[in-house]
Design a protein that fits this description.
The structure holds two protein chains of two kinds.
Chain A: H1 7-37, H2 39-50, E1 51-56, E2 63-64, E3 70-82, H3 90-101, H4 105-113, E4 115-117, E5 124-128, E6 132-135, H5 140-148, E7 154-163, H6 171-174, H7 186-190, H8 192-196, E8 200-206, E9 212-219, E10 226-229, H9 233-249, E11 254-260, E12 267-273, E13 300-301, H10 307-317, E14 325-327, E15 332-335, E16 338-341, E17 349-351, H11 352-357, H12 361-371, H13 373-382, E18 400-401, H14 411-417, E19 421-423, H15 425-436, E20 440-441, E21 447-451, E22 458-459, E23 466-467, H16 471-486, E24 501-511, E25 516-529, E26 536-545, H17 549-567, E27 591-592, H18 648-658, E28 662-665, E29 670-674, E30 687-691
Parallel strand pairs in A: 2-10, 24-27, 28-30
Antiparallel strand pairs in A: 1-8, 2-3, 3-6, 3-7, 4-5, 8-9, 10-21, 11-12, 11-26, 13-19, 14-17, 15-16, 18-19, 20-23, 21-22, 24-25, 25-26, 29-30
Chain B: H1 2-11, H2 61-122, H3 125-134
The chains are: A alpha+beta, B mainly alpha.
Chain lengths: 692, 163
């Protein structure tokens, strides 16, 4: 039988082929429908399953000190979260997570099982949460252990964590961040936007096992700007160390130290006591003033240290000169019917220099009266008091300088002595910088350079200084302030190998509950070194102490200034004094009486002039090489007088009176002598005195 | 149809019972390929044995050619398909590698930054002071510091001029 000629077979074949064709057509149609008609929808679904858009966290900008040493930096840390709805077993999950992350198991289980709350009424819902933070910012070891478990229901998110590798170094100036990485103190707060940067968005294509195949940047991440600040980590450390030691030794409530470069206003150190570690979160119940920047935010009545403004103003605006005679009334002055006394010792007539050197209150009042209230107030404001210095730190206090219309008849006396005016330690340092740099008011700076990621560092522009004193006034003030160190109330501030000048201050603390000033003091010292070309200005304040500025604050200046000058490689301008120099008894009394009448009854009795002892060494003293042997005195030989700090005329007069032959080198003030004062003078021996 | 008949024959369903009479008109000698009819039915089934052992398929050169053509075309098509999809495949594999390298790069950067922080902590002034104290390293006294001012003739450094 021939199949081909059989019509029935042919028909059947065609029917079969037709059925197959229809079937193929249906498949083809389905393919076209899926690949063409539903292309966008299916592609969207596929992308939704395969791709994930994640946020690329922006690293917060780092902070460096002036020499490039790291002060603050952010690192990425893993944070763990789960979806309680998708946990296979609550108990097992709680056991695993609490074991690895060192959490309380029961608390974690309770958090997992806590249902959602209705956003409006806060009543618990039936459904469980879809998201729960287990622990944020875990350590690298915890992250590694948890990842090694390969648990599908454990998810990780990356967050930025701030580190301060130097611990409690300059925390008030640098600042801190909260747990979410937002600045809440210091530079971290003020420059938060600049430091924070902006996170980016990345789309990651991943396979069924959630391994990344491809990634695409939707929005590039912008890391934060890094800042180089003017602080010097070494100087800052010394300032904090010495401030803490002095505050603890003298039971101060608070204290602060500011170190400035007088020419540029760069803040080399800003220390505040008490302090804290910025790496640690605030503890409940910690004192509120722990995080105050006392150098910047807390003003205090300056006391005698403001006499530098009174005297500088008088030199600048009147005919008074350093050797002008000021009548100090033997310690008593009648001012508008009110009798004013010196703190303790009365003086007769003093040259203006000695008004500053011995911190005579009546001398300062007389000088202020000569100046007049308008000029005095003008110079107080010129030297930066009563207005913010403009550092990029939060909560700066401008201090208090009252308008003339609010002054009483005796306000001029109070202001001349440093009362009725409050200022911060930074403002005090800034005012001293005016004298140190030749008469310019500089704006303090804290930021040296800015550097955006991938860009070169850009120097921060400095504001041009403003002249507020004549150059000759500044020079005269420097010499007079050197006298404070050599002969006056600031002897404990004298540096080895460097000339320096300064002023002590002791202002009484006002107690609002008692309604009067007390016998607790704000003791301060402000100074500069060296005298001829000052490289640093250091202001030290200790609040709530019972000793004078020359006793508690001046030694801190000595330690901090010495260290700062060595770190800045400032060449010495004095020969080293061999061995221990016998220093004259220190008159540390520089109390500015707040009440312009009889001295307060609770004032302590005048302290006996104390013999200046060497500051306690930080480390045991080293073994020194043997000093050259000199013949011992038999007792009948005359002793060499001490000429240190005296003018050329004084030295010659004294030498003539005592019959001591002297060889004079240079001019100015006596800086060094050989043999030293107090040593026996052999017959025919001449004393060589060096003046500068 | 033949299948049905063979099935019936095999199952014996078409066999008449022994005692059933032969239907009228049944002539066994004449209709040897006709199976015995179903009882009481007029349906007659025929089974014819066909011996196809001597049938030999005539060789079809056209079919062989078409077969080879099909094979060649299919192979070429498969190869083309592979070539077309190979870049995508390699791209995916490379994508895995790239992502892994990027992950390692990011991890190395993170490790570097962590080391910088650790280095800064090790060099912090507080730690250095504690170490100095433990190692009994003290600041020199002022009299122990000698500033060596170089002299023009090199005598301080004991320089000997070369000839």
């Amino acid at each position: 039988m021939d199949v081909r000629s059989n019509p029935k077979t042919t028909t059947r074949l065609f029917m079969l082929a037709g059925a197959a064709f229809v079937w193929a057509f249906l498949i083809f149609w389905r393919l076209v429908y899926l690949q063409v008609a539903c292309h966008e929808t299916l592609l969207r679904e596929a992308r939704r399953q395969q791709s994930e858009i994640t946020e690329a966290p922006a690293l917060r900008g780092a902070l460096f000190d002036r020499l490039g040493r790291l002060l603050a930096k952010s690192l990425l840390a893993d944070s763990v979260y789960v979806s309680p709805r998708q946990l296979p077993d609550d108990g097992v999950a709680a056991d695993l997570l609490s074991g690895v992350l060192s959490l309380d198991r029961d608390q974690l289980l309770a958090r997992i099982q806590t249902p959602m709350r209705c956003p409006g009424c806060h009543r618990p819902r039936e459904s469980r949460r879809g998201f729960l933070w287990v622990k944020r910012k875990i350590s690298p070891s915890e992250s590694e252990r948890l990842r090694s478990l390969n648990l599908k229901w454990v998810r990780f998110a990356q967050e930025s964590e701030r580190h301060y590798p130097n611990g409690a170094l300059a925390p008030h100036a640098i600042g801190t961040v909260d747990f979410d990485g937002k600045g809440n103190l210091g530079l971290e707060q003020t420059l938060d936007r600049e430091l924070a940067g902006r996170p980016g968005l990345v789309e990651v294509l991943q396979d069924v096992q959630e391994r990344a195949i491809r990634s695409r940047v939707i929005r590039p991440v912008e890391h934060g700007t890094s800042l180089t600040v003017t602080l010097d980590a070494g100087i800052q450390f010394v300032a904090e160390r010495e401030l803490r030691a002095a505050a603890e030794a003298h039971h101060a409530d608070t204290g602060s130290v500011v170190v400035l470069r007088p020419g540029t206003g760069e803040v080399l150190a800003m220390a505040s006591y008490p302090s804290f570690d910025p790496n640690l979160l605030p503890e409940p119940g910690e004192p509120g003033h722990l995080r105050f920047n006392h150098a910047f935010s807390v003003p205090f009545e300056l006391g005698s240290v403001l006499k530098i403004v009174t005297v500088a103003a008088a030199l600048d605006a009147t005919e008074l000169r350093p050797d002008s005679r000021i009548q100090c009334g033997n310690g008593r002055l009648n001012l508008f019917g009110r009798v004013i006394h010196e703190a303790h010792q009365g003086y007769g007539v003093l040259p203006l220099t000695d008004v500053l050197v011995f911190s005579s209150n009546i001398g300062a009042i007389q000088t202020g009266m000569k100046l007049g209230d308008r000029l005095l107030l003008e110079y107080v404001r010129r030297m930066g008091f009563g207005k913010r210095a403009g550092l990029p730190l939060p909560a700066e206090s401008p201090g208090t300088v009252r308008d003339l219309k609010l002054w009483s008849r005796t306000s001029i006396a109070s202001v001349a002595m440093g009362h009725e005016i409050s200022a911060t330690t930074l403002q005090l340092a800034r005012a001293c910088a005016v004298i140190a740099n030749g008469g310019f008011l500089v704006r303090p700076r804290l930021v040296l350079r800015r550097q955006k990621p991938g860009s070169k560092p850009v120097a921060e522009p400095a504001e041009p200084p403003q002249r507020v004193l004549k150059p000759e006034t500044a020079i005269m003030m420097r010499q007079m302030m050197e006298g404070v160190v050599l002969r006056g109330t600031g002897k404990r501030a004298r540096l080895d190998g460097y000339t320096s000048g300064g002023k002590t201050g002791t202002g009484q603390v006002y107690d609002p509950r008692l309604g009067r000033h007390t016998s607790r003091y704000n003791s301060s010292y402000v100074g500069f070194a060296p005298v001829t070309n000052p490289a640093v200005v250091v202001a030290v304040t200790l609040n709530g102490v019972r000793e004078f500025g020359g006793v508690v604050a001046a030694p801190v200046f000595r330690q901090v200034a010495t260290e700062a000058l060595l770190l800045l490689d400032v060449p010495k301008d004095l020969p080293e004094t061999p061995g221990d120099v016998e220093r004259e008894p220190v008159m540390a009394d520089d109390l500015a009486i707040a009440e312009l009448s009889t001295p307060p009854a609770d004032l302590p009795a005048a302290p006996e002039p104390v013999k200046l002892a060497a500051a306690p060494p930080l480390f045991p003293p080293p073994v020194l090489p043997a000093a050259p042997v000199t013949p011992r005195a038999t007792g009948s030989e005359p002793q060499v007088p001490s000429f240190a700090g005296k003018s050329l005329r004084s030295v010659l007069e004294e030498a003539l009176a005592r019959g001591v032959p002297v060889d004079v080198l240079g001019s100015g003030i006596a800086r060094a002598q050989m043999p030293p004062g107090g040593s026996p003078l052999a017959p025919g021996q001449r004393v060589r005195v060096e003046f500068r | 149809m033949a299948t049905q008949a063979a099935l019936l024959e095999r199952t014996g369903f078409g066999a008449l019972p022994v005692e059933s009479p032969a239907p009228a008109g049944w002539d066994e000698a004449v209709e040897e390929d006709r199976l015995r009819p179903l009882p009481f039915e007029d349906v007659y089934l025929h089974a014819k044995k066909i011996d196809n052992s001597r049938v030999v398929r005539r060789p079809n050169a056209g079919a062989r050619r078409r077969c080879w053509q099909t094979i060649v075309v299919s192979s070429i098509g498969a190869i083309v398909l592979m070539i077309v999809s190979l870049p995508n495949l390699l791209g995916t594999i490379t994508g895995y590698e790239v992502q892994e390298l990027e992950r390692q790069h990011v991890q190395l950067l993170r490790d570097k930054e962590a080391l910088e922080v650790e280095e800064a902590a090790l060099l912090s002034p507080q730690r250095l002071e504690e170490l100095a104290r433990e190692m009994q390293l003290y600041d020199p006294a002022p009299s122990q510091i000698v500033v060596a001012n170089p002299k023009a003739d090199g005598s301080l450094a004991h320089n000997v001029p070369t000839k």
